[in-house]
Amino acid sequence: MTIDEGYIKYLSHWTPGPATHIVAARELDTWRKPLYEAGLIGQYKALGIGYGNISVRRGSRGLFLISGTQTGHLPATDERHYSLVTDCDIRSNIVRCSGPVQASSEAMTHAAIYALGDAIGAVVHVHSAELWQRSLGKLPTTDPNVAYGTPDMASELDRLYRLEGFRDAGIAVLAGHDEGLISFGTTLEEAANRVLLISGA
Ligand SMILES: [Zn+2]
């Protein structure tokens, strides 16, 4: 298995600062909890590398609040563990974020999904070997040659959304990212439930 969690492939500009969006951080934790308990967000213990992340849109300019880098192992989170992505230039591969922690290394992929439609209000990325194997090719599935967290992934997700049923299913398998799936919803509840329902958790 190739682990590419935790490697930031884009240029990240982080402005450290106090926690903001405290109510939204609490709502993120509410929906992160069942995902963590199901092992869909967590840590590869032998490697000490966290996986899975969750975000919610804030306002109309593409801002979103996302779990911070290397927070996967935490059983519970609060506003200290979330970062506000303030700008994301997919073509230049640049992410800007602010808050008490740097944004997850997968913020670029979350940004690419928010860019698909204004109605998308939340994004959930999980890992499950079992779910991934079972869903490959059955749910909308990305090209295995497209690496996660890259500008190419943004255009691949756009293709899935327009042509491969990702828009209606709200969930996709990331074939080029071992064990990875991603879902979205108008709300956090919808995005999380799309994963939880098929995981049987
Ligand atoms: Zn991942």
Any key phrases for this structure?
201 residues, alpha+beta, binds zinc ion, L-fuculose-1-phosphate Aldolase, 6 helices, eight-stranded mixed beta sheet, 25% strand
Biggest sheet, spatial arrangement of strands: 1-7-6-5-4-8-10-9
CATH class: Alpha Beta
Instruction: Tell me the CATH architecture.
Output: 3-Layer(aba) Sandwich
Q: List segments where confidence is low: pLDDT < 50 over at least 5 consecutive residues.
A: none
Tally of separate helices? 6
Rounded average pLDDT = 92
Helix-strand category: alpha+beta
CATH superfamily: Class II aldolase/adducin N-terminal domain
Number of strands: 10
Based on CA inertia axes, which overall geometry fits?
A: globular
N→C terminal distance: 24 Å
User: Main beta sheet: strand number and arrangement?
Assistant: 8 strands, mixed
Which percent band covers the strand fraction?
25-35%
Count of structural domains: 1
Under CATH, the topology can be stated as: L-fuculose-1-phosphate Aldolase
Portion of residues in helices? Answer: 25-40%
Ligand species = zinc ion
Radius of gyration, CA atoms, in whole angstroms: 15 Å
The SSE order reads EHEEEEEEHEHHHEEH
